[in-house]
Input
Amino acid sequence: MDIKPGIPQPSLSRLPLYYRFLVQASELGKEVVSSEEMGQALSLPAAQIRKDLSYLREFGRPGVGYAVNELLGSLEEFLGLANDKEAVVVGAGRLGQALASYPGFEGYGLRIVALFDSDPAKVGQEVAGRRIFPLAKLPNLVARLHIQMGIVTVPAEAAQAVVDAMVAAGITVIWNFAPVRPHVPEGIWLQNEDLAARLATLSYHVVRHAGKQRRELAGSGRS
Output
């Protein structure tokens, strides 16, 4: 596939949204969709969608739209969704177990093969058919199964040590759910997911929306 270089991160982050929309469109038997139709469903400007997709290559025909299966295949190839990827979870608490049990990852080519934890009481247990191993076993399993991706679900104070252990074991892509931003060496891709920060943002919007409603009610009461 002839991909244009230098796709911006915001555009890259929207590609999975288009992929999910196209999967649903394909399941409904649609053969062609327009950027306007996609934009309406995803609450995005049609022009932005066309620009994002142009980073892959030239898609779509003016007045006709995008061939669903063609664009779907190109997105699968570009995002690596057609290739199975195996990952491990370090931190077998509630969040780690929930992620390991989530079936939706398989649709994106991700398969969690094992969990690791430092708590002896958890070691040996199974979560959704995946065994929990002691953290000391991480290097051996990563090397044996050629694991490239690690998921961090440990408390903040343990995150840096876990990330260091993953990097030392040979993991090159890390998905971090700990409420801290660990340091990684050059060449390692780190994706931070700060759930608490996102909750704070949502809380702000809840309070702001409630305040707006109160002002509107107060205004209508005076009229």
User: Anything to note?
Assistant: The two ends are 62 Å apart (CA to CA).
